[in-house]
Amino acid sequence: MKNGEEVRVGYLGGSITAANGWRVKSLKWLKEQYPTAKLSEINAAIGGTGSDLGVFRAQQDVISKKPDLLFIEFAVNDGGPAEKIQRSMEGIVRQTWKADPTTDICFVYTLSENMLPSYQEGKFTAVATAMEGVAAHYQIPSIAFGPEVAKQVTDGSLIFTGKADPAKPGQRFFTGDSVHPNDTGHEVYQTVIARSLTAMKDSGTGGPHKLVGMDPLRSDNWENAKIVPITPSMLKGKWTKLDPSQPGPAKSFQNRLPALWKAGEAGAAIQFILEGTVAQVYGLLGPDGGEVEIKVDELAPTKALLFDKYSTYHRLGKMSLFSGPSADRHTISVTLTANMPDKAKMFSEENRRKMEANPEPYGKAVWYAGSLLVLGDVAE
């Protein structure tokens, strides 16, 4: 950037990064600091997703676009055991540096209201602590927004959750829903970004980051996670490959799902052989989502819904098919059933009203499948 060269800045994260907030503000700030540099953005954020999807899509959505700097933000959406978080985060790091060891990485730790007490006590959250283990192992810098937010909430200059009241001018609110920052909240984030990047500017030396000869933090990390296209030979029954040039889900999601298949008749299936430890389907949830039956080898079949309490619109999602301890060979079949989920039962009162006002899309039970997510290899 100092030399005025072309620099691509990648942002891999969830909805807090997808919003026109700290991502947009940080890129603007970088452009102001380095006016001769030719900075461009790689927006690889998807709302409602964590590093467990990010590790599969990192190559397609950001690494393939050759970032020079990559911010990774999953501290709010991630959860569960530390080893689960570290497997995914380390996988993203190792994929990135395997492709280009000169890419600089920075972890970013956002927060929601339930995390505030930890930061007020001067502690990291369990999720951020797990991620810091990866950052420390690879000497990756990190930026935690929590301490500054906690400081302002504690001194009374910022209210974490609420909405402006005309009768009380001067109040500052961080968020309206306890998770997603409003513009004031994103300005706080940007203040921390600017302060942190300024402090980092003269530390360290430029050059490639080493993976060769360096033991991973976790030997079971997901460095080899990948997206595998769904091919026609995997499909059984009636499927339609949607045209991304036409209005609809394929056009809306073509930047994340280059191919999108739709099944609307019971019996349509995806069948393949996994030689590995993890298999998932990457596709869409939505108001017209149905139900599938998952069969792995001779195990008892299980059911999964393509609809949930948020499904008033189509959004990206993944469905777990199999997870096992060793890279064995498994025959997997996923079949659309004739069952219509009780969609109203899953909804809040507000979403039930939306469904009653426009019932037509909810009366369908379809399946949108884009690709497979695997650790291992797939045979058809």
Topology summary:
Elements: E1 6-13, H1 15-18, H2 22-33, E2 38-45, H3 51-61, E3 69-73, H4 82-99, E4 104-109, H5 116-120, H6 126-138, E5 142-144, H7 146-154, E6 159-161, E7 173-175, H8 183-200, E8 225-229, E9 235-236, E10 240-241, H9 249-252, E11 261-263, E12 269-285, E13 291-296, E14 302-305, E15 315-336, H10 343-346, H11 349-357, E16 367-379
Helix pairs in contact: 2-8, 3-4, 4-6
Short structural description:
By secondary structure, the protein is an alpha/beta fold. The chain contains 11 helices and 16 strands. Helix 4 packs parallel to helix 6 (126-138).
Describe this structure in words.
The structure is a single chain. This protein is an alpha/beta fold. The chain has 2 domains: 6-200, SGNH hydrolase (Rossmann fold, 3-Layer(aba) Sandwich); 226-379, Galactose-binding domain-like (Jelly Rolls, Sandwich), CATH 2.60.120.260. It contains 11 helices and 16 strands. It has helices at 15-18, 22-33, 51-61, 82-99, 116-120, 126-138, 146-154, 183-200, 249-252, 343-346, 349-357; strands at 6-13, 38-45, 69-73, 104-109, 142-144, 159-161, 173-175, 225-229, 235-236, 240-241, 261-263, 269-285, 291-296, 302-305, 315-336, 367-379. The radius of gyration is 22 Å and the shape is globular. It starts with 5 loop residues before the first strand and ends with a strand.
